[in-house]
Structure formats: structure tokens, C-alpha cells
Design goal:
Helix content is about 30%, strand content about 25%. By secondary structure, the protein is of the alpha+beta class. It is flat and about 45 Å long. It has one domain (about 5-115). α3 (about 85-100) links the parallel β3 and β4 (about 110-115).
Length: about 120
């Protein structure tokens, strides 16, 4: 799948702030990528900034089946300076905790997790 020019240019703009950019510097890029792969025309919805028991992943891709909005993919973003062993472990821990808390809400057998640290 090919990305449009706006998506292709966004990583170059995001790099301007280097390691000190906050997570929200990457929201537009990740939102565009997720909407490309998980479009509403295919029945997906992308929730932003979902809060649950003090955990705060940036995005949850859901698919509605009947009355239920089934979580399929949980995305957690961190600033580029977190691209360390400890930072990667923190992202995985947060994603797993959040997925476990949401697993009972889906009718699917799998919830996928995506951790983005800057452009990684």
C-alpha cells in the first residue's frame, strides 16, 4: 500500500525537533497511517486518547460488531528520547496492561499492540 504525499512528508517534519519532540508531535502521522490501513469504509473506527485506570494509549482501533465496539489494535506513543531499553520495556508493559484490561470487551481472539517511540 502506498502512502500519499502528506503522510510521506510528515516524518521529515517530525524529525525537525529530534529527540525532544513530545508524543503529540507524532499524532498526525500515526493517525494518517492508521486511517490508511483501518478505514471507516471497512468498518473500523479509531478512538483517540482512551483513558482507562490511569493508562492512556494514544489510539485504539475498534470494529463494531452489533452493539459492541471490539478493540483490535492498541497503539501507545512515546517521545523519541524514550528509544532506550527501559523506554521500550515501559511501552510494552503499558500496552500489555491496557490490552489485558480490554480483552473481555472484544469478541475477537486477539488484540494487536503497536508501540511507537518517535519514528521507531
Amino acid at each position: 500500500m502506498s502512502y500519499n504525499n502528506a503522510i510521506k512528508q510528515e516524518p521529515f517534519l517530525a524529525r525537525l525537533n529530534a529527540d525532544h519532540a513530545p508524543e503529540d508531535q507524532f499524532h498526525a502521522l500515526y493517525n494518517a497511517i492508521l486511517n490508511t490501513w483501518f478505514s471507516t469504509s471497512n468498518g473500523y473506527l479509531i478512538d483517540h486518547q482512551i483513558l482507562y485506570k490511569n493508562l492512556k494509549p494514544e489510539y485504539v482501533v475498534v470494529k463494531r460488531v452489533g452493539r459492541n465496539r471490539n478493540p483490535l489494535l492498541i497503539v501507545e506513543l512515546k517521545r523519541p528520547s524514550r528509544w532506550t531499553t527501559a523506554g521500550r520495556r515501559m511501552v510494552m508493559r503499558e500496552l500489555l496492561e491496557y490490552a489485558e484490561s480490554r480483552f473481555s470487551l472484544t469478541q475477537y481472539g486477539t488484540i494487536y499492540l503497536l508501540g511507537g517511540i518517535g519514528l521507531h
